[in-house]
Design a protein that fits this description.
By secondary structure, this protein is of the alpha/beta class. About 30% of the residues lie in helices and about 20% in strands. The structure holds NADP nicotinamide-adenine-dinucleotide phosphate. One of its GO terms (biological process) is fatty acid biosynthetic process.
């Protein structure tokens, strides 16, 4: 016999005679998910699958996803070129061992088993505490340790909450942990129009930092420059302009740049090392060009540049308590209108959405010059 905590149920759908029901507090929920059972291109390996979720018991929490972003790392994971791999299991009821993709997402608590902390209640929002949960689905079962509760959802949109734990968190940590930056200091970053880059500009501004933001040239570059400046970027320059050290010195007035955040690699990373100041720190967190880092020996020998890598997944595993506090800071800025989300393209995910409609934004997820992050927005009848 299942046991439940009979608290307020929130907007949970009750069983309908039509058979197209989703969930009841006491019944089973039908979860629709994307799954993959082997690595490869998303359009070749992703399938749509449905499975039944029983009512929660003991420390189990039933949740439903509200929004799940499509991050480059999710796609790399499906391709099999990402170091973290989800667990492939028969527990989803697929014929072969499968995993649900997606690492980041926002859920609503639906119902709780009897041993769940009573402060967790139906209707509350939570995000994933770590990677590999499998967020590209509708319903799921979680434990408290899988979730970071959002104590106050007032003033925060579902997409803002769903995208808080990877990109803004990565920007926050890199700005805070590597170069001892203080008000008035300069940092430089490439792919400044990315989700991470836009967060870094805004968090940097909040902390009194000055930023040089490098983007690739494109038609409409002036509009992009204005856009990033309006977020608080001190200067926005193209990759070509970033090669000109005299131009950079004119911007900074000769002030050394203490931190460079590299999302791209290849020549773009080389340019960053050339404009970093003495004892500067180069932090690599992405490899969008898929090219190796080229760091001139002179930068290491004569300017004592320090090279680091950063990975939010690893940091999160090692810093659980600090993570909650950081998420609280970021959500506070969002609530106060001080941190705007990156442009996004929402794909509605309802009971009728077809596999091809879900795969399309995934295929676009790592396309160049897209300018928008894909996010699945789940809809429930
Ligand atoms: N290490 C970590 O902990 C961590 C955390 C978060 C993200 N990341 C990584 O950071 C990167 C950005 O993630 P995001 O979610 O912020 O991405 P995003 O919002 O989708 O933006 C992607 C960025 O990459 C640029 N880009 C795409 N293809 C490129 C290419 N071939 N050469 C140069 N630039 C290219 C885009 O610039 P254009 O507009 O010019 O195409 C854009 O600025 C990804 O590699 C992701 O895996 C790492």
């Amino acid at each position: 016999m299942w046991s439940f905590v009979t608290r307020h149920t929130g907007p949970v759908k009750h069983i309908l005679a039509t058979g197209r029901h989703y969930s009841t507090r006491f019944g089973y929920a039908n979860s629709r998910c994307l799954v993959f059972s082997g690595f490869g291109q998303p359009e070749k390996v992703l399938k749509l699958h449905s499975y039944s979720i029983p009512p929660p018991y003991d420390d189990i929490i039933n949740v439903r996803f509200i929004a799940s972003p499509i991050n480059p790392a999710d796609i790399n994971q499906i391709e099999g070129v990402y170091p973290e791999r989800p667990e492939f299991t028969l527990g989803l009821g697929t014929g072969e061992k499968s995993a649900v993709p997606g690492n980041e997402g926002l859920v609503e608590i639906i119902s709780c088993g009897s041993k769940v902390n009573p402060s967790i209640r139906p209707g509350q929002w939570a995000i994933m505490s770590g990677p590999n949960f499998g967020t590209w689905r509708t319903y799921a079962q979680a434990k408290e340790s899988n979730l970071i509760m959002i104590p106050d959802k007032e003033g925060i949109s579902p997409i803002q909450a769903a995208t808080v734990s990877v990109n803004p968190s990565t920007a926050y940590r890199m700005l805070k942990d590597f170069a001892g930056l203080g008000p008035g200091d300069y940092f430089v970053q490439n792919a400044a129009n990315s989700g991470v880059g836009r967060s870094a500009i805004q968090i940097g501004r909040l902390w009194g930092l000055k930023s040089i933001n490098v983007v690739r040239d494109r038609p409409g570059i002036d509009k992009l420059k204005e856009d990033l400046k309006s977020l608080g970027g001190t200067e926005v320059i193209t990759e070509t302009e970033a090669k000109d050290r005299r131009y950079i010195a004119k911007i900074t007035g000769g002030q050394p740049i203490k931190l460079a955040m590299n999302c791209v690699g290849g020549e773009s990373a080389t340019n960053l090392t050339r404009i970093l100041g003495h004892n500067g720190h180069l932090v690599t967190y992405g490899a969008m060009s898929r090219l190796p880092l080229l760091v001139p020996a002179s930068a290491l020998i004569f300017r004592n540049i320090h090279c680091h890598g950063f990975w939010i997944s690893q940091w999160s595993k090692e810093n659980e308590a600090s993570k909650s506090q950081m998420i609280g800071d970021i959500l506070g800025w969002i609530r106060d209108g001080k941190l705007k989300d990156a442009p996004y393209e929402a794909t509605k995910w309802s009971e009728d959405t077809k596999l091809e409609e879900l795969i399309e934004p995934v295929k676009r997820g790592i396309s160049e010059y897209s300018g928008r992050k894909g996010v699945f927005i789940m809809e429930y009848n």
